[in-house]
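tmp note - Beta-glucosidase
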Amino acid sequence: MNIMKYFLFVLCLNLCALTLFAQKEDYRNPMKTPIERADDLLSRLTLKEKIGLMKDTSYPVGRLGIAPYNWWNEALHGVGRAGLATVFPQAIGMAASFDDSAVLDVFSAVSDEARAKFHDFRRRRQFGRYQGLTFWTPNVNIFRDPRWGRGQETYGEDPYLTGRMGVAVVCGLQGPREAKYNKLHACAKHFAVHSGPEWNRHTFNVEKISNRDLWETYLPAFKDLVQEAKVKEVMCAYNRFEGEPCCSSKRLQVQILRNDWGYEDVIVSDCGAISDFFHVDRHGTHKGPADASADAVISGTDVECGNNYTSLEEAVKEGLITEEQIDISVRRLLKARFELGEMDPDSIVSWAKIPLSVVNCKKHQELALDMARKTMTLLQNNGILPLSKSGLNIAVMGPNANDSVMQWGNYNGVPGHTITILEGIYSKIGYVPYEKGCDLVTNNSFESLFNLITTVDGQPGFSARYWNNKEMKGEVVTTQIVSTPFKFDIGGATVFASGVNLTDFSAQYKGIFRPDRSGTVILSINGDDGYRIRVNGEEVINYWGTHAGAKKEYALRAEVGKEYDIEIDYMQDRGGAYLQFDIGNYHEITPDVAIEKVKDADVVIFVGGISPKLEGEEMKVDLPGFRGGDRTDIELPTVQRKLLKALKDAGKKVIFVNCSGSAIALGPETKVCDAILQAWYPGQAGGLAVADVLFGDYNPAGRLPVTFYTGVGQLPDFEDYSMRGRTYRYMTEKPLFSFGHGLSYTTFLYGVAKVNKNVIESNETSILDIPLFNAGNRKGEEVIQVYIRFLEDKEAPLKTLRAFRRVSLEAGERQDIRFFLSPASFEFFDSDTNTMRVRPGTYELLYGGTSSDEDLQKIQLMIK
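out:
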């Protein structure tokens, strides 16, 4: 069949399908609008069926052809928790790119992978978590304090930067507005005034903030996503705001979101948030599930991630809510599903044509590398960088140099291959000595030999099988290859593998260990509820049963030349499942011993910092400096600090590559290190991106999306949500590194800017032209930043970002960069009217390559 005949054949089938639909009920007719279809379907549902549709695990209604649907999916920086995906840099790293166009490209690729995965799941009749079309991202909370463990998921401390990045994410995920079906639905979270601490988020009440902070800092990014990007979902936060849980906040959800901003789409609760309403050891503001659920729905929360909405039937009987009020939410949910084409056949949904081969395809791998390069932020350089690829004795050290999982951040998928930073360096200059030197927070280093394990057919790692029961019986629901040390943890509801339950499941892992030397090897395992290990058929560890978590180890006397079959069984009963396993040896390394191993090196590249194992969402971390995923101080861990100083004292040139999702106080490191590169959590291609910068194959242009403080002494109390003294917008002390800071291998000079008018009306757009000259001898990119200060209001921010652009200039090139500053650029909070508005008076425009006053040029204009 030629292409034309095939086209006519498919067209005929689709026309026949549409004709058939037209003869049926309105809700089955794709020619009707989503709201028309929703209204028709709503009228056919019973109360019980409506309530069943309001859970994140939405129930099917077989008699009406409604399939099961799970509203929960993740795509923070690539499709998350659903197996293979392209893993891009963590969100905070993408913010450092100051390139919203590149972020749009990334999330257009992410939405391709998401659509392909969804249709593949549906063809296999799979309807589980992380298999739907509604993605709970982006996180546009303001990263107000570097101690917050989830700050890595955000786009930094600035409302404007966060808004621009968030808009790009939403547009990339949801696709063209003119398309018949939305590509995906994005979700602005967590609404609102939410940024830690993690340990008390289920009890915490934010009450002492001003209207200025609310409207100038905490709400602008959400407003951008709702009104400009037309985001299709908003997630309410765990904490209380002014005494009410956010998911039942009349001020946030009814007055601001629904009424003031005109938001008409879905609000979803954070997971378990409704339960927090009535538990006495949490918010305790409601009597029970029925009372809490009714209040949440009346306040606009349409979908509950949890199990309390089943009590809505009881709430109707008790008069706490009417069926008509429930209908308002169900109509929005049905409309959303029709907008996505989720209830229509693949044959008429254009997005269904995206092939599964797009997942982690070569184009997306290249995009991951390009974005990783853009995130690289050079904080300090005494001229040592870029390094020569020859003529230097280079060694690599540090706990993050060869850690692939660190690079993935959190809320991640699993890449086909991760280029570690060590691997990236090897790709530039070949093999050089590598000595880990210390762990992240201790000098008791575990040398992993996991790379010596293969499956029966020779693939790196363990083969895994999973059952959705505790007995390892019946149908195997999925298989996978685990090619890195086990770090499974359902924290944040991360399943062990796609299609596997969160509770009541079992697994078996098999691998062959081939030692490269004889001696004792430690098999280290930690988990709950039950696990056991067999080596060559002999059981060596048995912790089987419904136990609390525990760590067990076995010392294996290994002989080179022999093979050791290792089998691990795991069983999860209930609660929070986790399983960690590695094989190797412990080494306690003192600084002098570590330095001895790199004694011949002239230059040491030390890759340290922290990791997602230490900072994140409500974690079980109890180490000095860390609490529940947050940090109690922001210093570099002492063990790394001592080793860096020892290297300097030994006469080594030290290049420090810092990996973190938050600001680190690097004061001592600025004195002992010759260069400092902030690499964030750079994703699957991060190792090559770091090496490209270190060896001059890429000229860095990343900029800090957060202030790097000198220490916690520059910070207010973590639980204080007032912005006074916080971030570059209100901080009067000099930080270690300013918001917007980042160095290049070339020099950019700014000329004297001009505005088209020095006096404008409040509804006029101001045109700002900034001359920029690349005075160096190599091509580079500069991030031009435009800040505005309102001189008439002493309570206004000291300055606030209102425009930026990342531009590329050849050596010796000059360009005039034009910015159009709309009236919204000059909006500040007016305490007299309690509104954001453009006020008459004098405004100062500050422009340059950083937020530091001493590096900014200024120009004034008047608004009448």
